[in-house]
Amino acid sequence: MLATNQVKYLFKGKSTHAAFSPHMGRSALDGVELMNVGANFLREHIIPEARLHYAITNAGGNAPKRGAV
């Protein structure tokens, strides 16, 4: 039996000025990458016939406020 599931995740970050308050910024792309690392580790624990793929659909630009997988 074949089945497919599609899920879209949206990560929100916070832009800030690099000279005045860099510690206040949050990169959405960091969250996207961390989720992808977790997905790669998950592959070790699913049945061999299962497939798990992801695609970054929005990388957010230079200082990512938004990212999507």
UniProtKB/TrEMBL annotation:
Keywords: Hydrolase. GO terms for biological process: folic acid catabolic process. GO terms for molecular function: dipeptidase activity; para-aminobenzoyl-glutamate hydrolase activity. It comes from the Bacteria. The keyword Hydrolase applies. One of its GO terms (cellular component) is cytoplasm. PANTHER family: PEPTIDASE M20, XAA-ARG DIPEPTIDASE. This is Amidohydrolase.
